[in-house]
Structures are given as structure tokens and as C-alpha cells.
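thread: overnight batch results

M.L. [08:02]
morning all. the overnight job finished for the chain we discussed friday. pasting input first so we're all looking at the same thing
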Amino acid sequence: MKRILLSTLFFIFSFISFAQQPNDCANALTVCGDSDVVLDVNGPGNNSNEFPNSCQSNENNSLWLEVTVTTTGTLAFTLTPNSTNITEDYDFFIFGPNTTCGNLGPTIRCSTTNPQSSGQANNLTGLSTSETDNFEGPGAAGNSFVSAINANAGDTYFIVIDRPIGNSPFSLTWTGTAQFADAPISQTPPFGNGLDLTECDSVAPFNDGQTLFNLEENTPLIIGSQSNVAVAYYESESNATIASSPLTSPYTSNNNGQTIYATITNTSTGCFSIVDFQLLINNNSTTGSPSNLELCDDSSNDGVEIFDLTTEEAVILNGQDPANYTVSYYEQPGDVATSTNAITTPEAYPNMSSPQTIYVRVDDNSNPTCFGETSFTITVNP
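M.L. [08:03]
and the structure it wrote out:
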């Protein structure tokens, strides 16, 4: 499946060390919009793409981009390796306009100049409006820049960014006047916790930074009133960009504060943007293990006595300040989660049976949605 992404003035690709599906002409990343993106790029892809070109090189460690122009202008860019070391050498090849992967035709622009061999002062390369040559290289031939393309609205080009040996990060800065299609964006701003999801730690072992989240809670917030838009969720920005390993709900978080990346894709054009948010976990109140309570039956021998359920409250609070927590008692376990039908007089409670289980809920007054649970038994001895 072809993936379409947003670029900005600084269209950033980062080579990091985990696996990524190979990038070829058939699944070229199409540039649109004006937002940053991070990628892992490595290897020549699944197809050899031994394309004809005037710069005497081929695909080695490459990234394929597809650019469709929406506003007529000059197509130009500067590729800047993150390292200023003159040995960090990038080449590029451009095909088009309006070719197909099965019939690319010859390159219309390419540069395979080696900046060290040609005595350049830096290792930048790209398309420039101040250049007149369309092809240069290999080795010492050229100055690493060739002429910009006069692109018309509707023209589509394939750009192959290639490093002959090895990988290293680089940025791509669009410097021409040609413009690309916009992509949908999140209708809820990610800043100000607009998309952050918060849950109580409901998965044992508790308070370990892992619990269940329904990521799709954010889908209507992200889409808003936009039409023909789909949202998918990923653990990394790289996975989001190449649509690798989408997440499903319920999703178990890896840690408290984990960042999730959502793609917002126009299902008609394929253009997408990426927004991120955090998964936040509130720890449940901790509870101690109260002792069971026993009383002797009185002379009535009816098996019913009056219990003070609060006698173990200090143990239940487990060192937490009673001013900051509320302890409640229940006859049915299902009432604990909903905080309904609490025993109204726990200091003077007549047992219903013997033995009988009493269920306890401990609420943090500052965050009552996250609570701790425990239980103990009460018994009337004859």
C-alpha cells in the first residue's frame, strides 16, 4: 500500500536501528502538506530498480518519495545530512513527470557528485534555481546541485534519495515555489492535554505503569467534522509513517506517560498527518490486609451480633492519611466497582450471615475514580 505523508520546510528522516518494511517505487512515500515526519530508511528495498540514468549509479540505501504538485512553480530542495562530515555523501535521482513504477523512463535530474572528491566546502545536495545543468557526477564531476524543475499543477515526480554506502540522518528542505496537497489534521489540539488519555491501573500487578486503554476514544476528537478521514494508532512515529503494526484496543500500555502516534488519513487522496498524545495512568489507592472479625453469640443464640467494621481501618489504609482517603464497606462485590449500596452504619453493623464477607473500597479523595479494594470476613461464634 502506498503511504502519503506531510512534509514541512524541514522534512526530517532519521535512520534508527529497528526494522522497517523496505521502501520501493511501488510504496513510495508521497509528500503533501506542511508537517514534520520521522522515518527509518535502510537498504535498496525489495525491487532492484536498476533504472536508466545519466549519473552512472543505482539504488543502494534509498528512500522513494512521490511528489504531486497542486500549484505551478519551481520544484527545488536542499538535502542536508545531519553530520557535517564531508564523507557523508547523498545522491538523488528524479523521474517524471507522470511516469509509473513499471515505466519510469530515464531520470530527468540526478546528482551523484562526491563532495569530498569534488572539493566541496560542505556535503549538501539538491535542486537549485541558480543551477543550469540537469545531471552531474559521479565522483568529482559537478558541485552537488542541479537545476530546479519548472513543475505544473498536476505533475507527479518520483524522487529517489540514495546513500551509496551506509546510512545516516538527513533533512530535506523544500526551497521552490511549487506547492503540494494538504492533509487532514487533528481537530482537537494535542497541546493542553487535549488528546491525552487517562485511566486507572486496572491490570494486575497494579501500579506498574501498565493498564488497558481504548485508543479509539480519541478518534471522534481527531476527526471532528472532517469527511473521508480514517484514524489509526501506532507505538512509534516511524511505524505510523509507514503504516506498520497498527494498534488495536483494548491496548495495554508499556509505561506511564507512553506516547502514541495517530495517523489522520484522507481516504480519497491518501494524504495523512501524524499527531501524538500520551497515555497517563493514575495509581489505585493501596490497601492493607485487614484481619477477620469474630464475636461470640449472645444469650439469644440467633447468630446475629453488632460488628464495628471500622476497627481495621488503619490497617486497610496501609499508612495513608485518613484525611485524604475515604473507606466504604459493602455486602456485595459488584457494588464496590460502582460505589453503590455502601453500608451506612459500618460502626454498628448487624451481620446477615455467619461467616459473611465484607467488601471494602478505598477512594483517593483527590481522584475518586481510582480506588483500592480488599475484603475480610465477620463470624459469629456460638
